[in-house]
């Protein structure tokens, strides 16, 4: 696995594409309209430089509006921000979808574009080839895949295409850690990015109210959310917790100046059940 690089806004990793990616960002799944714009703006103001969206979310335009507002207000520069979007595998024209995402985001390039999930083999390949073309055209800088959970399913994109994935974005949390995939991917120079870092909708309290998490939070004088985010980072994952609450957004980013002990990491690792909440 590549080394962490200390950057002004936190930590970054160097991807196999050569570009640096922040290890902590804002996920925007379920965020829409002005609520989405306010959340993204609040995140950038709090120090986040990784923003994750997708065509399927229907909020690329709002994400782009917030980014431009933050740049206009002097909060950040475009080159400091790492924007991820995703393409669905059932598209009839992935090349056009990439152009449409660029238009909606109002950006000249996308930092990371992912195949959102597994569809048909031909559909997956068509999208991945379109992303490779876009890299060559300067529209996308790094590419990857999402919702691929095994070495077998991910290997196809490493072995059969000229540009391998830089990132695999999957459901990943204390109850489903998929350490086997993480360790295999690390040897390939690929990072695992955690969506649902707190367990996702319907399971957040189960994670934030976990007795062990609360015990560790008390020991560090931190919140349960901060302990979980810190666990993701120290485990070598990239994490994108989502929230529309500016206070929670700021809280989730305040994780850089403490460390979990080896014993605490081992205990949290033992919470793994190997079972996902979603089935996509």
Question: Any key phrases for this structure?
Answer:
280 residues; alpha/beta; 8-stranded parallel β-sheet; 3-stranded antiparallel β-sheet; 11 helices; 11 strands; disordered N terminus
Summarize the structure in short.
Helix content is 41%, strand content 17%.
Structure characterization notes:
- With 280 residues, this protein is α/β, with parallel strands linked by helices.
- The chain has eleven helices and eleven strands.
- It has helices at residues 33-46, 60-72, 94-105, 121-136, 151-159, 179-187, 204-208, 211-220, 224-234, 246-253, 262-269; strands at 4-7, 10-14, 20-22, 26-27, 50-52, 82-87, 110-115, 140-146, 167-171, 191-195, 238-239.
- The protein has an eight-stranded parallel beta sheet with strand order 4-5-6-7-8-9-10-11. A three-stranded antiparallel beta sheet has the order 1-2-3, with no helix packed on it.
- Strand 7 (110-115), helix 4 and strand 8 form a beta-alpha-beta unit.
- Helix 1 (33-46) packs across helix 2 (60-72), helix 1 runs parallel beside helix 10 and helix 2 (60-72) runs parallel beside helix 3 (94-105).
- The longest helix is centred in the middle third of the chain and has 16 residues, at 121-136.
- The protein is globular, with a radius of gyration of 18 Å.
- 46% of the residues are buried.
- Mean pLDDT is 95; it is low at 1-10.
């Amino acid at each position: 696995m590549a080394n962490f690089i200390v950057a002004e806004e936190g930590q970054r990793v160097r991807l196999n594409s050569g570009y640096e990616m922040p290890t902590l960002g804002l996920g925007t799944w379920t965020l829409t309209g002005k609520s989405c714009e306010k959340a993204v703006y609040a995140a950038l103001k709090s120090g986040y430089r990784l923003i994750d969206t997708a065509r399927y979310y229907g909020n690329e335009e709002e994400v782009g509006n917030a980014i431009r507002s933050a740049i206009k207000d002097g909060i950040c520069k475009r080159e400091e921000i790492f924007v991820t979007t995703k393409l669905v595998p059932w598209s009839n024209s992935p090349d056009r979808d990439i152009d449409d995402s660029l238009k909606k985001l109002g950006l000249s390039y996308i930092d990371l574009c992912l195949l959102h999930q597994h569809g048909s083999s031909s559909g997956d390949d068509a999208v991945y080839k379109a992303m490779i073309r876009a890299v060559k055209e300067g529209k996308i800088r790094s590419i990857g895949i999402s919702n691929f959970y095994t070495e077998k399913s991910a290997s196809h994109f490493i072995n059969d295409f000229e540009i391998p994935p830089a990132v695999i974005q999957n459901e990943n949390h204390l109850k489903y850690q998929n350490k086997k995939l993480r360790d295999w991917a690390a040897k390939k120079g690929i990072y695992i990015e955690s969506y649902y870092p707190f367990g996702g909708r319907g399971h957040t309290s189960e994670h934030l109210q976990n007795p062990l998490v609360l015990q560790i939070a008390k020991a560090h004088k931190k919140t349960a959310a901060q302990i979980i985010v810190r666990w993701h980072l120290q485990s070598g994952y990239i994490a994108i917790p989502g929230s529309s609450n500016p206070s929670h957004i700021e809280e989730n980013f305040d994780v850089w100046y403490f460390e979990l002990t080896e014993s605490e990491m081992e205990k949290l690792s033992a919470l793994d059940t190997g079972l996902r909440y979603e089935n996509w």
